[in-house]
Write a structure and sequence with these properties.
There is one protein chain. With about 130 residues, this protein is of the alpha+beta class. The chain contains four helices and three strands, in the order H-H-H-E-E-E-H. A three-stranded antiparallel β-sheet has the order 1-2-3, covered by helices on one side. A hairpin with a 7-residue loop joins strand 2 and strand 3. Helix 2 runs parallel beside helix 4 (about 105-130). The protein is elongated, with a radius of gyration of 16 Å.
Length: about 130
């Protein structure tokens, strides 16, 4: 999986102690421990399909509580069956979790734990389709 450098965590959650770097590091460590190679951006561009794992957090701030919606998806270049000359970046696997409501002081931990759970789901699906 390539190491993309986009922001995953909204700034207001980073201010509460959760960083994009922490989420990325957690995900990469889990992938490596499972034996899934983490590609650099340059390596990703050389691999057929230009695959990458995309993580996104949407945080809703309320007066007393915050909510989250998390997405982990595997994206890669696909070809249209009806016109193989058409190449698109497409989501070929995804999992979503949302609806959690947390006190602001807990949001960073809950988001990090939520991403870890979703990345584990990806790992299980990936290993099921790519046995060693």
């Amino acid at each position: 999986m390539p190491n993309r450098k986009q922001r995953i965590v909204p700034p207001e959650v980073e201010a509460r102690g959760l960083t994009t770097t922490a989420v990325r590091t957690d995900a990469e460590l889990r992938l490596r421990r499972a034996g899934i190679r983490v590609l650099t951006r340059e390596e990703s561009l050389q691999v057929p399909g230009t695959p990458y794992l995309y993580l996104n957090a949407v945080i809703t701030r309320g007066n007393m509580y915050w909510g989250d919606s998390l997405l982990v998806s595997f994206r890669q270049t696909v070809l249209l069956d009806r016109d193989p000359g058409v190449r698109l970046d497409a989501e070929t696997w995804s999992v979503w979790a949302g609806g959690g409501i947390y006190a602001p002081e807990n949001i960073a931990r809950k988001v990090r734990d939520g991403f870890n759970d979703l990345v584990d789901e990806f790992i299980n699906a990936y290993l099921a389709m790519n046995p060693k």
